[in-house]
Amino acid sequence: MKKRFILLGLYSCFGFCQSTDEQQLKDIYQQALTNSECYSWLDHLTNTIGGRLTGSANAQKAVDYTQSELQKLGLDRVYLQEVMVPHWERGAKETAYIEISKKKISVPVCALGMSVATPEKGILAEVIEVHSIKELETLGTEKIKGKIVFFNRPMENALIEPMEAYRGAGDQRGSGPREASKYGAIGVIVRSLSLRLDDFPHTGATRYGDIPKTQYIPGAAISTKGAELLSKSLKVNPHLKFFLKQSCKKYEDVLSYNVIGEIKGTEHPEKIMVVGGHLDSWDLGTGAQDDGAGVVQSMEVLRLFKILNYKPKNTIRAVLFMNEENGVRGGNKYNEQAQANKENHIFALESDSGGFTPRGFTIDADDTSLAKIQGWKPLFEPYQLHLFMKGHSGSDVEPLKSDRIVKVGLKPDTQRYFDYHHAANDTFEAVNKRELELGAAAMASLMYLMDQYGID
Amino acid sequence: MKKRFILLGLYSCFGFCQSTDEQQLKDIYQQALTNSECYSWLDHLTNTIGGRLTGSANAQKAVDYTQSELQKLGLDRVYLQEVMVPHWERGAKETAYIEISKKKISVPVCALGMSVATPEKGILAEVIEVHSIKELETLGTEKIKGKIVFFNRPMENALIEPMEAYRGAGDQRGSGPREASKYGAIGVIVRSLSLRLDDFPHTGATRYGDIPKTQYIPGAAISTKGAELLSKSLKVNPHLKFFLKQSCKKYEDVLSYNVIGEIKGTEHPEKIMVVGGHLDSWDLGTGAQDDGAGVVQSMEVLRLFKILNYKPKNTIRAVLFMNEENGVRGGNKYNEQAQANKENHIFALESDSGGFTPRGFTIDADDTSLAKIQGWKPLFEPYQLHLFMKGHSGSDVEPLKSDRIVKVGLKPDTQRYFDYHHAANDTFEAVNKRELELGAAAMASLMYLMDQYGID
Question: Which part of the chain is the Peptidase M28 domain (chains A, B) (predicted)?
Answer without folding.
Answer: 258-445
